[in-house]
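User: Can you help me understand a structure? I only have the sequence.
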Amino acid sequence: MEVVNKKHIDIMLKELIYKYRSVILILLAVIFLLGARLLAVDHFRHGAEKNAMPAISGGNTIELSQLDLLRANALLVYLDREPEVNIDTNMSVLYLKPGELLSKQTLRYIRKSGGPTILLSGDPTVSARAWMLFAQKGIANLFILAGEEDIENFKYKFRPDTITVR
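Assistant: Let's start by predicting it. Here is the structure, written out as tokens:
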């Protein structure tokens, strides 16, 4: 009696699989694609909110005078071209073009440096963008070298309109 029931269950299972084979194949494909996406090493590690917190608090910038404190095993990364400011340093130096920012060799080199990574560019927006990309890739201890001038200060003093309406 048990053998008959087992055969009957096997036949019903085969019919069920045959009947819903397209749904099962689609479901397996979706599970496979989701698994591949989750296991990929090329996606960003943290959300934008977590990465933006140091930028909002100002903890991602470092002044030229503070550079002496981080000389131990710091890595100075020049973005886009040779610097206009001469920085006398004993740190490791890496020159990058914008197209090389997310290459595997660059990310591996920065992670192996072990110390703080300091980004420097002639254009502050390039440094900020590179900082955000590296932070999203999970690189910690990352700073932007702030220039001599404060980019938030305006060049000219605000003067209200002097024309009066009569």
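Now, to help you interpret it: Helices lie at 2-19, 21-39, 48-57, 104-113, 124-136. The beta strands are 61-62, 75-79, 92-96, 117-120, 142-145. Let me know which part you'd like to focus on.
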